[in-house]
Amino acid sequence: MPMAFQPNVQQAIMQAASRYGVDPAALMRIAQIESGGNPNAKNPKSSAGGLFQFIDGTAKQYGLENRFDPAQASDAAARLARDNASILSRTLGRDPSAGELYLAHQQGAGGAAKLLGNPGARAVDIVGADAVRLNGGDMDMTAGEFANKWINKGSIGSQIAAQPSSPPQAPGTPAPPLDPPINVASHPAQPIQSQPEPPSGLLSALGVDAAQANPIFAAMGQMMPEQQQPQMMQPMQAPQSMPALTDYISQFLKTRMV
């Protein structure tokens, strides 16, 4: 989980870093390791205190009057980091990494340069037993091993986040899943239903041969959508009292079949 800074603390660090040309992420990483981002942190075993755990001597050297004030502590820490970077760049022949800047903050620029320049020597012989023991080192560690322990920890690969001023909003309700696409190939075409035969009783009453009339009714059925075909009514016998109408319909159908 990334360590969160209070907004005023993060603002103080970033402003100081910008003021002196220091990487703000590297400066926040130093504060993260030294105090957990707590400007009121105090080491009961030494004079170290504040956001960057300045001891009395270094605080005096950089004119830090109130080491528990985030703005003052950040300003002094940015100037210290700038000076350490200048010394290490001459030793290394390049700009130091964020982890190397942290090592210099912990051991001083001179101590960090010696550790990096003598990786095979014992760390206690380079910076002293207290400097190794009080910073989580082993008495048998080489200078390179001890330096790498803190260079790796001081890396800015870990995320650094601002303390949120309000709890995060609950995630929105996810959209319902879409219906799966229809695979047309998996649905075979339905056979076309045969058209109903015209009622023979009606044709007989009209004097029309059923075999000849069938193509006309079939063609009429093809022109109508399958689902819209009306139900065929039961055949009705033409009334004997209407010979003129019967003759007219019979003549009409015969002319359509020509």
TrEMBL record:
<comment type="similarity">
    <text>Belongs to the virb1 family.</text>
</comment>
<feature type="domain" description="Transglycosylase SLT">
    <location>
        <begin position="12"/>
        <end position="89"/>
    </location>
</feature>
<dbReference type="InterPro" id="IPR023346">
    <property type="entry name" value="Lysozyme-like_dom_sf"/>
</dbReference>
<dbReference type="InterPro" id="IPR008258">
    <property type="entry name" value="Transglycosylase_SLT_dom_1"/>
</dbReference>
<feature type="region of interest" description="Disordered">
    <location>
        <begin position="158"/>
        <end position="203"/>
    </location>
</feature>
<dbReference type="Pfam" id="PF01464">
    <property type="entry name" value="SLT"/>
</dbReference>
<protein>
    <recommendedName>
        <fullName>Transglycosylase SLT domain-containing protein</fullName>
    </recommendedName>
</protein>
<feature type="compositionally biased region" description="Pro residues">
    <location>
        <begin position="165"/>
        <end position="180"/>
    </location>
</feature>
